[in-house]
Amino acid sequence: MSDHLPSSRRLKNVTTNSLQFAIVSPTDLPTLVQALQEAHLPDDDVALPGRVFFAFQFDGQHIGYAGLEIYGPDALLRSVLIVPQQRKRGLGSQVVSEVEKLAHRAGIERLHLLTTDQAPFFERIGYVLTQRQLAPADIASTLQFKSLCPSSASYLWKSL
């Protein structure tokens, strides 16, 4: 993990306008796992090294999660999840924007993701739909690509 990413020791809460976020601590992983399971998103590898997940709030209300899995200049954007009662308010794009800023400050040049049903959303915010076989080797070798996401999942990427 890069020194430019916030750590749970150095960061309790970061605020940008009305959006706040903090790193999901090991003790909060069960809550993240439950949310991922309820959203039918992969959760088998969230506790493995090299992953960092963020919990987001907007105006004091919990709105969801997102994460990064870093591989040099590339990272996998993970588990972007807005809780059902907070959807359709533009919060998903704000969450992704904040994660992109964190990634850029950490020296990440490109974000990659897999999605079964949100490709149009990610395309609207600048991600490019691409054939899976064109993913960089480090990204293609992740558990997300190899086994956790179905082969029918769309692959998208964005240069930061």
From TrEMBL:
It holds the Pfam family Acetyltransf_7. One of its GO terms (cellular component) is cytoplasm. GO terms for molecular function: acetyl-CoA binding; N-acetyltransferase activity. Residues 19-160 form the N-acetyltransferase domain. CDD domains: NAT_SF. This is N-acetyltransferase domain-containing protein. It comes from Metapseudomonas resinovorans NBRC 106553.
